[in-house]
Amino acid sequence: MNRIKLFTVSLMLMTGLWGWCQKPPSKFGKISKQEIEATVCPIDSSAHAYFIFDFGRTYFQYATTVVRASESSSEHKGFQMFFERHYRIKILDDNAFDWADIEIPIYHSLGDKEEVTQFKAATYNKSGGKIEDVKLRTKDLISEEKNENWDIMKCAMPQVKGGSVIEVSYTVKSDFYYNLQSWAFQHTIPTLLTEYHLTIPEYFHYNQAQRGYFHVDLKTDTKRSFIEITYEDTHQTIVGGDNKKSKSTINYDEIILLYTASNIPAFPVEAYLTTAQNYISKVDFELAWTKFPNRIEKHYTLSWDDINRNLLKSGSFGLQLKRERFLNDEVGLIKSQYSDTLALMQTAFEMVKKRFLWNGRNSKYVSSTLRDAYKSKAGNSADINLTLVVLLRELGLEAYPVLLSTRANGMIHPSHPSLSSFNYVIAMATDGQRTYLMDATEPLSEINLLPTRCLNNEGWIVDENKSGWIKLQNSDFAKSATYNLALDEEGIFKGDLHYTYNNYSAYEERLKAARETDTESYLQKKFDNISGLQINNSELTGVDSLYSNVEVKLDVEISGKLEKAGDLCFFEPMFMDAWKKNPFKIENREYPVEFEYPITDMQSIAISIPDGFAIEELPKPAIVKLDDGSVKFMYSITQLGNKLQIISILSINKVFFLPEQYPFLKQLLDMVVDKHKEQIVLKKI
User: Fold this and answer.
1) Per-residue three-class SS string for 103-122
2) How much is the pLDDT for 76?
């Protein structure tokens, strides 16, 4: 008889050299008088809330404790990963109530799912000299599906108000070794103390990527541990009727990591930032390999080429591009009408856009099969755009899938190969000379005009022979406003305005128009908040068609803009198209500025001055630019008789600016705002 030997595990911690505490800074519920009575953050008097502490711990335990010979090995789990988090937040005022919304991400795949094994939370308030609490437990969590691999366990803390302290503690059990929790040391509110402890058996090796601008202390060590194995054979018994047992011990090392930081300021979220997750101080982990006793070493991520090969072999990705044809009718219809490469491409693109309704889910994998998605006329980003790749190929075009990370998902680090970093796929085609990028999830997108969520530096072309990186940005944002106005003796400017929107500017206008019931509502919403503007007539073109400019022509009267002081009159000539404020507020920025696209914003304003007025003073012309020429601002004003011509052009020719360029960019935009405020002075004669 073949004896089946499986084991019971008892992980024994050895103290030895490693004596670091693995407990939170405070027991749950032990709220101090100082914490409940605090009215200001100790490190930031302007903060609306702050973390008193944020403690995390990840460790591994062997799951199976009793194994009998009659049971198959498939019934038993090996190591399981546990993540514990315990944090306490002081809510100082009503502006911080969002921090009382608790969200715990839970991963699931192929029938397996992470589990919240322990959850408790409480809101503490001071009442009548005492601290009162309202508690929550696991039953209060509500599960909400985020996408095909992630759910969110969520709840809202009760009775939160200015002065409250909230406390949350939970444990997540996971069988997904590759999903070792990241840890953020910094948040958008200050953090007084943050710790992350990890105890990792030698059988697992993780690559670590630490980022951010604040010092985080890291201590590392190893400790010797052992597994006590109890073998049990239910087919043999000893005297007394017990099963025959034997024991042995396996010794192994555990890697200890301890990250600590204190007095971390709030991350200052400003305009033109892809996502704060790219730059806050945090640490990420990527499973590189596992090596269990008596098994060969298994590598998970080696290089981008390995990722490429794995994707091509995946039944949820590459193999979907090779399965039986289901687009024969569509291919025949398109080929019967067009033969030109660009026409074939555009027709296929528009056909897929019209066929599918995007379900709002970002994914690099199909939800089922492309055939099923096509039949259902709905799907995620992979369902839709991989179908487009198949259609383009069957039309005889050279087409490939391109993986990317959306802006909200964070940047891709080319030096750290990671499949999990990608969360989206688009289609690419080439005619041998030019490259064309397409995303058929968005009805208003165009070829080489991807939805802005996709504009995140580079994407990865998935192909056996032509894999590699490709820039995702192929277009710009261009807007121009042309005024032709005459000032009458009553101080009213009359004439016409002509707006032209190109590329992403036109795309944004179409999105705005699509949210309204009709074009009249769109124009009304666009111009209604401009004081003193009366529209007598309007004309809108291009908003209902793609691959063209959107143009708005208005016959207007503008009142209330002329100020009088004795025999002098003043007005700002930029009217409603002035840059009213600089989007950059803080003096120094420790992370880059990331525009979605290059920008050109131009105003050309012609104003006729009536008889009886003389031009007393004009703004001075200006030409300023950054040293590398990436940002330019030109302002000119000329007089010809009783007519004035004002031209303002701001061009931002690149999308990424390093932190050291920020002060100069901020200063230049301050000049734009100041210049647009300058007035023309007229004098009655």
Assistant:
1) EEEEEEECCEECEEEEEEEE
2) 54
35-216+252-299 and 305-471 in the same fold: no
Domain ranges of the chain: 35-216+252-299, 305-471, 477-684
Collapsed DSSP state (helix, strand, coil) of residue 282? strand
Q: Which CATH number fits domain 305-471: 3.40.50.720, 3.10.620.30, 3.30.565.10, 3.40.980.20?
A: 3.10.620.30
- The CA-CA-CA angle for residues 49, 55, 60, to 5°, reads 150
Six-digit token string for 456: 């995140």
pTM here?
0.86
Contacts with 622 (C-beta within 8 Å, 6 or more apart), sequence order: 633, 634, 635, 671, 675
Q: Which residues of 367-386 are buried (b: 16+ CB within 10 A; e: fewer)?
A: bebbbebbeeeebbbbbbbb
Per DSSP, what are the bridge partners of residue 584?
A: none
What is the identity of the amino acid at 311? L
CATH class held by domain 477-684: mainly beta
Cβ neighbours of 667 (radius 10 Å): 13
- CB count in 10 Å sphere of residue 216: 20
d(CA 291, CA 274) in angstroms, rounded, equals 37
What is the C-alpha to C-alpha distance for residues 413 and 301, in angstroms, rounded to an integer? 14
Separation in Å, CA 225 to CA 9, 56, 78, 252, 254: 12, 22, 16, 6, 7
How many CA within 13 A on the CB side of residue 64? 19
DSSP, collapsed to helix, strand or coil, labels residue 72 as coil
The arrangement of secondary structure in 35-216+252-299, i.e. its CATH architecture, is Sandwich (2.60)
Span 360-399, pLDDT tens digits = 999 999 999 999 999 999 999 999 999 999 999 999 999 9
Q: Tell me, rounded to whole angstroms, the distance of Cα 362 from its chain centroid.
A: 11
